């Protein structure tokens, strides 16, 4: 009888450990990237867990990484040494939170834009809009893609020695994103 109690106790204590699954997406009202769009670079096989993303950011940012300030939202992918985030949601949901849209963000950033130190690009393709922005010396580059239904806000994190590669890559990444029909 005592053996059965020990076995049951061991089993009950093990359940939380056995039940922990990897988390791939985090945030309120967010959607998986694959549900709303596709990209050559943001494929399921390149998706990583939030724990792996946190470790990758720690490695990329080094002493600049602040564990207590980091709350990872969205999904994360690794491609060619770049950590890529994608926060996907329905426009109707984020517009309730007073999200002004890509064009308003672009106009706001353009006010203090210094082309010598920063890169800022906005394009309206009719059915969707894109914006890319970053400081030329930073290893953090941000992108926005939105159509009439969905919004994708993301970033690329690169090691300091791959910043120029990341700057070229972000253009390819944004061009590769197409919304599902």
Written overview of the protein:
The protein has helices at residues 2-19, 33-36, 50-61, 91-96, 102-111, 163-176, and strands spanning 37-38, 47-48, 75-79, 82-90, 118-124, 128-135, 140-147, 150-157, 178-179. The protein has 181 residues and is α+β, with helices and mostly antiparallel strands. It has one domain: 3-Layer(aba) Sandwich (Protein Transport Mog1p, Chain A), CATH 3.40.1000.
- Using only C-alpha atoms, the radius of gyration works out to 20 Å
Q: What is the molecular shape?
A: globular
Instruction: Name the average pLDDT.
Output: 84
Structural class, by secondary structure, is alpha+beta
Task: Please report the number of helical segments.
Answer: 6
Question: Which runs of at least 5 residues are low in confidence (pLDDT < 50)?
Answer: 2-21
Number of self-contained structural domains: 1
Distance between the termini: 61 Å
Order of helices and strands: HHEEHEEHHEEEEHE
Overall CATH architecture: 3-Layer(aba) Sandwich
* CATH class category: Alpha Beta
- Within the CATH hierarchy, at the fold level, what is the topology? Protein Transport Mog1p, Chain A
Helicity, as a percent range:
25-40%
Oligomer: single chain
- Give a short account of the largest sheet: 7 strands, antiparallel
The tally of beta strands, per DSSP, is: 9
Strand order of the largest sheet: 2-3-4-8-7-6-5
Q: How much strand?
A: 25-35%
């Amino acid at each position: 009888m005592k053996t059965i109690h020990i076995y049951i106790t061991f089993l009950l204590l093990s359940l939380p450990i056995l039940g922990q699954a990897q988390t791939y997406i985090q945030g309120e009202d967010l959607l998986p990237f694959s549900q709303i769009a596709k990209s050559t670079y943001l494929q399921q096989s390149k998706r990583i867990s939030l724990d792996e993303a946190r470790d990758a950011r720690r490695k990329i940012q080094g002493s600049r990484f602040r564990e207590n300030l980091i709350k990872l939202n969205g999904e994360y992918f690794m491609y060619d040494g770049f950590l890529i985030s994608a926060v996907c949601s329905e426009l109707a949901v984020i517009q309730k939170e007073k999200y002004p849209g890509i064009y308003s963000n672009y106009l706001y950033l353009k006010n203090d834009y210094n082309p010598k130190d920063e890169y800022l690009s906005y394009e309206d393709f009719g059915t969707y809009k894109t914006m890319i922005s970053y400081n030329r010396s930073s290893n953090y580059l941000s992108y926005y893609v939105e159509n009439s239904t969905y919004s994708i806000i993301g970033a690329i994190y690169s090691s300091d020695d791959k910043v120029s590669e990341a700057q070229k890559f972000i253009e390819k990444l944004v061009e590769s994103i197409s919304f599902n029909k």
